Amino acid sequence: MTLILVGVGLIGVIYAGAGVMDKFSTLNKSARHMDSYTGDRGFDSANARTDLEELGIINAICPRSVPLLKEKLEDEGFCLLQKRRGSTEGRIGIFKNAYLGTPLRSKGYENRKTRIEWCILGHNLWKLAAMAAQKRAELEAELAAAA
Questions:
Q1: Running DSSP on this structure, what letter comes out for residue 64?
Q2: How far is it, in rounded angstroms, from Cα 13 to Cα 40?
Q3: Residues 26-85: pLDDT tens digits?
Q4: How confident is the model at residue 143 (pLDDT cuts 50, 70, 90)?
């Protein structure tokens, strides 16, 4: 599976102590409605579970409690979302290290936002070119086999 980044808003660092309602009010300003919320154990809290339930959003945050985790692991949707989270975090790491650079040298919110948007465009063009080259090689192999 190939991940194409479709848009990233600068939302700042989300701390585990902050309420999920606050996070979603920030996220929903720049994104469409979210159906699920996935995170690691650092984001789990009673408040987060309550807030997500009130918002009607699927809670796929990895619980800190081992018995609750065992219960959640029986849910196929939870496992799928956690698996997807891992691959997405890997791609974000590649994007951050290979495209943005560390530290991000743009000053100010607007400049950082613009820099990230240009880097997303560069990343997506690179991925599309790789996909096209792979498809071309497959087609050439099929034609050579048929001849």
A1: S
A2: 15
A3: 555 555 567 777 777 777 888 878 878 887 888 888 888 889 889 988 989 888 888 877
A4: very high
Q: How far apart are CA 43 and CA 82, in angstroms?
A: 13
Written as six digits, the tokens of 15 are 């701390």
d(CA 6, CA 136): 24
Burial bucket for residue 96 (CB in 10 Å: 0-12, 13-18, 19+): middle
Beta-sheet pairing, 36-39 with 58-61: parallel
> What contacts 8, CB < 8 A, 6 or more positions away?
116, 117, 120
Q: Residue 32 corresponds to which amino acid?
A: R
Neighbour count for residue 52 (Cβ, 10 Å): 20
Around Cβ 95, how many Cβ atoms within 10 Å?
18
Tokens 């660092």 label which residue? 13
The residue with tokens 């465009």 is 121
Instruction: Look at residue 30 in the predicted model and tell me its pLDDT.
Output: 52
Residue 39: phi and psi, rounded to 5, are: -160, 175
pTM of the model: 0.52
Q: How many angstroms separate the CA atoms of 47 and 20, rounded?
A: 8
